[in-house]
Amino acid sequence: MKRPEDCMTMADIRAEIDRLDEALVAMFAERTAYIDRAAAIKEQVGLPARIDDRVEQVVANVRRHAEAQGLPPDKLEKLWRKLIDWSIEREEDHLRKG
């Protein structure tokens, strides 16, 4: 692992981005396992896939984390809302099958 300032070539940068992308995909897989479990629990207790209060809570958390990391909260919110929509679609698919 190299710090950004230690990367001297585009090959160095690309290798680090590829490493991070692999880690991000692994984290998305882990997050998806929790989404799948949430769908199973929601099915048992009769909750819908989309719970608007929770969506807004997740978005608020992401905005707070983005600000703490010096990232643009509006851009991260837009990206996260897509992730949330994808997650809800996955839960809805599970609930339809169940």
TrEMBL record:
Sequence ranges assigned to domain Chorismate mutase in this UniProt record:
4-95
Q: Quick check: keyword Isomerase in the entry?
A: yes
* GO biological-process terms attached to the record: chorismate metabolic process; salicylic acid biosynthetic process
Which positions are annotated as binding substrate? R14, R31, K42, E91
- Please provide the record's keywords in A-Z order: Isomerase
One Pfam family from the record: CM_2
**Which superkingdom is the protein from?**
Bacteria
- Which GO molecular function terms does the record list? carbon-oxygen lyase activity; chorismate mutase activity
Q: What class of enzyme is it?
A: isomerase
Enzyme Commission number(s) from the entry:
5.4.99.5
> What name goes with this protein?
chorismate mutase
Look up and give the organism this protein is from.
Paragemmobacter kunshanensis
